[in-house]
Fold this sequence. Notes:
The protein is α+β, with helices and mostly antiparallel strands and 259 residues long. The chain has 2 domains: 1-20 and 139-259, Protein of unknown function (DUF541), domain 1 (Translation Initiation Factor IF3, 2-Layer Sandwich), CATH 3.30.110; 21-85 and 97-138, 2-Layer Sandwich (Alpha-Beta Plaits). It contains 6 helices and 10 strands. Strands 2, 3, 4, 7 and 8 form a 5-stranded antiparallel sheet that branches. A hairpin with a 5-residue loop joins strand 5 (86-87) and strand 6. It is elongated, with a radius of gyration of 30 Å.
Amino acid sequence: MAPQLEIYVDGKGSSFRTAERGYVRLSISATSIDQAQAAHAAQSAIEKITTAIRALAIKTEDGRAHPDAAVTAFTVSPRSTESRFQRDKDNRQLPKQPKEHVVRASAEIIFRDMAKLAEVTHELATMPHVSVLGTEWRLTDATYAELEREARVKAIRNAVHKAQDYASVVGREVVAVEIKDQPSPSGHDMYHLQQALHQQTLQQTLAQQHGSGLSAAVVTEGLTLEPKTITTSAHVQAKFVSKEEDGDSEDGGRARKRR
């Protein structure tokens, strides 16, 4: 009887989808030595953003995002106020000068319509007291769960094919007896990092274009925010052993020859 064959292999698989949502983070900030003036400037910016976004975030009667809504979610944080000393060009405090008052808030927007995302992001980036902190591309929970499942299935199939390749060369058949899921870099998180760097470059470009006196139409036409591909990966380690009938059939063949 031939000794049992053991094969250990890694299996890897990945799946991808085009992003279905664009998540935009905003910062609203106004500074003045007059606290009321800072509060008014910040509130005015918040109201402009709210008016523009609510027109895109239409709801159904039960309060859910309408299937045709360009924006599926929108939130604005409460305002916060900070008082601080003014500073000179060397960053030294100026205690004799009137204090500055800083009023801040933040907002988050989730876009379904990517064309609207590009258009609105440009408008927000050029709005006084508003900064676009970053844009992330996302999938819906249902799609991402499906993507992960596809990647796992591909990883297991990859392991099976490897084991079968090795076994077939030596004339054996194998079955899986152990599968271990292994941590694997998703590509989703890596893309978020890449997108943050891309967004920083985008903001710098917008600032340069806006400062050069180009019209909004020219800047918008030159601005592309195409949804990116999101990839998820899976990695497994598997153990395969030869089927018992391999050895039995070999012994049986020898016995028949002896007869």
